[in-house]
């Protein structure tokens, strides 16, 4: 964990993020960090703002206030007055986004493309990787998530678990610095959850930096270095999984864990 | 280019000749005599229809991009254009552009006069602008029916607005919108008969001329049959394109993938 100069320093740093939806203050100042090779799990009740936080990190929602930096590079938000709504440079934003890959609850594979094309699309269009190279990479990544026999299948013909594994391969194809997961197993039938968690566990072991919103407490406990409990738009509690799961300090966290465990 | 036009004209005459002579043993005398005129009109209708649907489609692409753009200086004019052309009868549009503008004459219209004095050109222009408005709305329906996650996935991997449009949104929207688009082409074919009111000798114009010489009402039946043949050909063409674009269970996927 002590690679060139980032030792002890946050690879992802999120500072004082605020987000307001037409008067509803969803995020009320969130600050946390993740070191390289670290897995951070975000847990919390429905509506506590987990998805919103994740979406703010890669600018699918524009935070009203706050700062985000990846690998020492600050997200190109330029405060105008009291709000961040004006973004300096669309190109910077896109490059920034490309360094963070997102895996969605509903997979969001592109329905008009085969799995292979889904995985090739970002590299070819955004990273300008030559097609042949992107195809090779796509095949390797899909093999890695166990989908070698589905390369030319369309998303509609795959099970939920297979679609999510393909979506993970698509995220990896962007060579992201950080992987963001928003409840990647919540839309799956129970018997399909395991295969997706297995892939994610594998990525964690490999040393990927990941931020995972999850309701799978067993998984959070097993793979994360740090667990963050979100409560009503604030960080209610955070710490290593042993602490959060075995001796939570706040009532809210205790109650939440009692309701999900 | 000129060669191409000449080849087309020759082909047209050859086609009309051979169809008419093939039909003559099995047709009533009335039709046999009028056959070349019918086919003259038939081809005028096809020409207007193909040109206006292709040009109209291209304009519709530009209009729908403006319409869904977050920039109000683009979306408001696009909206107004669609509103005007969908909200007024095609007949009125034809008459305004042909008789209305045409009444300004050579002095009023200057270099545009040669264009506006020809019913055929005004007909083509009006049909094009009219269908573009409808097609833009049809495409917008397709775009807005896309699950938002499709676009977010594209944003999340860093695609530009134009990449998202070109690679993700449009290819799906066109497939969603295709049945409605096919409907619009057939409606346009029928509506095109109105150009006969601005002196264009399309299938309807020719049918009326032939009728005015014989006063035999069955003439209209032959006209109708030719329209039906054209509708059949168009439907076939639209189906072929649909089949070429088809993606296994794409449309079912749309509805079942919504959370
Ligand atoms: N685009 C939006 N517009 C308005 N309100 C929103 C929007 N997105 C989220 N919200 C609101 O913000 C709050 C937090 O939502 P968020 O999706 O972040 O919660 P969550 O912690 O991810 O919940 P869940 O576990 O159910 O996914 C909710 O009350 C939600 O209704
Ligand atoms: Mg959520």
Automatic annotation (TrEMBL), chain A:
UniProt key word Cell division: no
Keyword Nucleotide-binding: yes
Ranges of residues in domain ABC transporter: 12-257
Compartments where located: Cell membrane
Family to which the UniProt record says this protein belongs: Belongs to the ABC transporter superfamily.
Upper taxonomic lineage: Bacteria, Pseudomonadati, Pseudomonadota, Alphaproteobacteria, Hyphomicrobiales
Alphabetically ordered keywords of this record: ATP-binding, Cell membrane, Membrane, Nucleotide-binding, Transport
UniProt xrefs under InterPro entries: AAA+_ATPase (IPR003593), ABC_ATPase_HisP-typ (IPR030679), ABC_transporter-like_ATP-bd (IPR003439), ABC_transporter-like_CS (IPR017871), MetN_ABC_transporter-like (IPR050086), P-loop_NTPase (IPR027417)
Protein name from the UniProt record: ATP-binding cassette domain-containing protein
Domain of life of the organism encoding this protein: Bacteria
Molecular-function annotations in GO: ATP binding
Residue ranges the record marks as coiled coil: none
Membrane topology recorded in Swiss-Prot or TrEMBL: Peripheral membrane protein
From TrEMBL, chain B:
Origin species: Devosia algicola
Classification via InterPro entries: AA_ABC_transptr_permease_3TM, ArtM/GltK/GlnP/TcyL/YhdX-like, MetI-like, MetI-like_sf
Keyword match Cell inner membrane: yes
Subcellular localization: Cell inner membrane; Cell membrane
Family membership noted in the UniProt record: Belongs to the binding-protein-dependent transport system permease family. HisMQ subfamily.
Signal peptide: none
Membrane topology: Multi-pass membrane protein
Membrane-spanning ranges: 48-68, 80-100, 120-139, 176-199, 219-241
CDD domains in alphabetical order: TM_PBP2
Pfam family, one: BPD_transp_1
UniProt domain ABC transmembrane type-1: residue ranges: 42-238
Keyword set, alphabetical order: Cell inner membrane, Cell membrane, Membrane, Transmembrane, Transmembrane helix, Transport
The organism's place on the tree of life at top rank: Bacteria
Alphabetical list of PROSITE patterns matching this protein: ABC_TM1
Name the UniProt record assigns to this protein: ABC transporter permease
Keyword Transmembrane helix part of the UniProt annotation: yes
